[in-house]
Amino acid sequence: MFWCVLLLSGLGLICAEEPFSHNDHNERVIGGSDAEHGIWKWQISLQYGSDDWYSHICGGTIVSSYIVMTAAHCILSMDPSQYRVVTGEYNMLQDDGSEQYSPVTQIYVHPYWNGYLGNGNDIALLRLAVPVYHNGFVAIAELPPPNQMLPQDFTCYITGWGYYDNMGSSPTILQVSPINIVEHSVCSRPDWWGSLALKTMVCAGGDGVISGCQGDSGGPLSCFTDGAWRVHGVVSYGPAGWCNQVTKPTVFTRVSSFIDWINSVRS
Asked: What pTM was estimated for this model as a whole?
């Protein structure tokens, strides 16, 4: 599951793609490298299917022992029984001994999400049937204070199992890459994302080298701020076709804009 943004004669048309086949269970960040096992402990794999077979569709973040955060466009059905969350995941094709599996019991999509990525509010929370526990490979993410915005070129990290090139190549191990913030005054320029970049979003990348791609949606943008690693973004959208385009950075839902709503659900 990802996003697509089609640029037509300078006009932006955004749509959320249907999930493609995840039979290989293996996608990753463009420009990334294999993450060290057990470093990005708040990263989760959101999987869709049934008791007989589940497939990775999106990333996400642990925000409490019972709640994970992902993108609203990752929610294909409001039936919780069709999802499971895997924490401590690393290599999709093997049992790493660190995984914890939990069914989903309740889905909370932001009340202002309307299915159109350009309007923002691309955020959802899932309640787990089984709480996560600290086994050395999982942790609850720290979040930023309300409305915090990061400066131009501040270095954060994107993680996920999304495509690692524009040809759709798909390895199995969690990927990580540094990615620099593009502040709103730049990202909202007409030759960047223009009016599609809202202040409730955070842009990062746009150098034509590093980006999120299909399969990374819902995953975290992790930044070291105020003395701790904090999740500042939720992967939301990017350009269709070639994910790592110059002046078309990966766009994340800005977590700091939704702290009150997150706290109202996880309290």
From this structure: 0.89
